What does this fold into?
Amino acid sequence: MKLLTPFTTPDSRFAAGKRPQVVAAAIANRQSETGIALVITLIMLSVTLVMAVAFLALSQRERKAVSTTTDTTTARLAADAALNSVQAQIITAIYTSNNVNYNATLLVSTNYQNSLGYLPGAVSPTNVNYNYRSTDFKSLSSDEMIGNIANLQIFPRAPVFINGDFRFYLDFNRNGKFDPSSPNEADIQFWQATNGPVPTMGDPQWIGVLERPDMPHSPNNKFVSRFAFLAVPIGNTLDINYANNAAQNPTTKTTFSLSPIGIDFNRNQGVGSWEINLGAFFTDLNTNTFAWGSLNNIYTNSVGQFSGSGFLDAASIYAYRLNGNVANSTYNTPSLPSIINVFGPNAGTIFGNDYVDQYSDGPQQRATTLPSDNDASDASYPWPGAPSTNQFSDLTGDLFDTNKVSTAFVNHLSLATSGDGVNSPTNYDRYTFYRLLSQLGTDSEPDNYKMNLNYSNVVVNYFDGVPTNIALVPNAETNLIPWQPLDFFTAAANRLLLNYSAN
It folds into this structure.
């Protein structure tokens, strides 16, 4: 009997050399598929990573864009709220005034404060006072301060502290102190006890804007912005860009240098805004000699040169307007055009024979008869009534900028507001700058719809000697066409009757 061992029987499938090749090929195929899958996986992960990074970058950019848009919208709405607040105050004053032609004055933003003080524990939007309790007029405790802040709603004083300093007002006069306004400031009764009556307006105060203004301040009703305003009606102020001149001596109009003996301001017939005496305004703004220095020679019709700090300060402002050197108080007036440049070559002849002293250089009008003026010989000189090269735009900053006004003027204004270290500023001194802002501005009220006294700016049509149409033409006076007596009388009478009937 013969024994057979396993796998000794020949098989075509397992011929010599075939089985190892098949196994190796199968293994290689599996490794290749695994490698391809790995590569595809890595590619997909890379694409996912790129998309994730791109999404994060895009979302961050969009978040910043949304944040910027939100902040811009919030700021615009706060500015609108400030404008509406100003308009509401003006309208309220008109309605509550017996004078139908109410003359507005300087307005600043003020917070609501209960002048009786804070009543501990009372929950009411009228129970707000940061300074003292109503029970004993002492300072508030920490818990009472929290309760006071929780009542903020009416013209609220948002609790903003910077390095421990409660920033609730704008210190426009740079005296480092809070100057309250009446009648809404709670400190008034204590102020009056030591300093006398408080002027109408002082430092503008920040008014907080709540997310929901109809509800008091709370952790769920935060302040989103705050605004402050200072408003001056242009119709009740002098225009710093047109007041004052250097017109006294025609022979010195080309150049002028300030000196301690005075300046070259002159006023004659008062035919233009350039004859408004800015130096006299500064001198009268604060009459304390420690603040404004010498007060002599404030008269406008004096033949001699003028002196005094007020006039030197006005001259430095005029120097900036004419693009001069404010630091050493020198300027060149050729930056101003002449009357010929403004009105044409015939202006010299017309101005020289109209008995109107447009150059304000004399001879002085000292009697009822009109003197012969010499404007014809001055027609090529720079004209004080021409627009200045430089303009002031923001008096709250410009009048403390030594690039625009002299250092002496800044010192005078600071001394008038803060004192000199020896003379303590009184209530009259501390409010000097706000009295200035209530009377001096950077704009002029448009003079359209007004008759010009010197030259015709009204067209009068007649039919059979009866006026049928009377129309004012803006800026027609620059054509230098003299009035016809009948036209002037008709137009003036018509305006008087219209004004009378309108009122």
About this structure: The first strand starts at residue 107 and ends at 108. The two ends are 149 Å apart (CA to CA). The chain is about 35% helix and 10% strand.
